[in-house]
Amino acid sequence: MLYVRDLALELQRQGHTPVVFSSTRGHVVEEMRAAGIEVSDRPGRLRHTPDVIHGHHYAPTLVALRRWPTVPAIHVCHDHASPNDKTPIHPNIRRHFGVSRACARRLVDDGVPEGDTALMLNFVDTARFSPRATLPERARRALVFSNYAHEDTHLPAIVDACRQAGLELDVTGAGVGRIATSPERLLGGYEIVFAKAKAAIEAMAVGTAVILCDSGGVGPMVTSAEFDALRPLNFGFEAFRDPLRPGPLLREIARYDPEDAARVRDLLRSRAGLSAAVESLVSTYHEAISEHRRLRSNARGPERSALREALFLRLYWRWMAVGPERRAELTRLPAVQLIKRAVRRLLRQTGSIGPDREHRYDSQR
User: Fold this and answer.
1) Which residues pair with 77 in a beta bridge?
2) pLDDT reported for residue 354
3) pTM, whole model, 2 decimals?
């Protein structure tokens, strides 16, 4: 959702009129609405018909394509494994992108011709995430910046390593019940940040030293020498080279270098800024619109699966709109379990994903 917020606000700043079809919960939605951006979880209630659909996840992308069957689309895959990021295959989708090499490979695995896929690397709002003061010679404070950090994932190893290194450690993220609503004001208070993917990118933009880490393992501290190799990996799981143990973390902590962290900051800010990324994206929108005018197709999937797919999309979207805490409560009810099993049987016949599978975004915190 943070990706969508940044994108929508920048599109608006550049003179476009974005509308957002998404969940309508949370402070991020309120921020977009406060800026005058229309947000709804029901596409039929949006006042504007889009010129192009920018889809992210499987179900809402297809819902939007059904609502506006003559509008072209692009699709961006943000996770290489989540069932919610299964690639939507539709004749109106003119471009498929992945935010990492792993995501681009998933597009091909899901049926997109390799020549029709490309990378669309993550960006950061450099105005929001402004540089902090120069890092001190010795690191004293560290932050775990991840929604997936808790006692059953990678947090214990980091706690142990920071204790041995003499670092004061804080943790922010959904996993520990401390969500940072303004990370741009938080990150500058730390010398070292443990993060991955978009969270790591935001920390780098501020100028902290970043160690790539998640439940999947330990990656390197991002250095200027390795920046170009790590960015196509989205600073994500493919960069995790070592097991999740204090030893590799201590080795990376020892690589703390204030001057090189500043070089990484400058590289990130010059190559991954939001404004330039959105200008390029708008060019992609225009290409998709022009191509769609030339090659408009009314092709549809097999009629025998169309109704089942439509039912799935409606059920899935309503289920996700309930919110994670309420979904967890409902899942424990026997009647809901029966309904979910019936839906899964139905969906196996269409190849659709199921509404009971929670997701993890490789590009998120």
Assistant:
1) 98
2) 42
3) 0.83
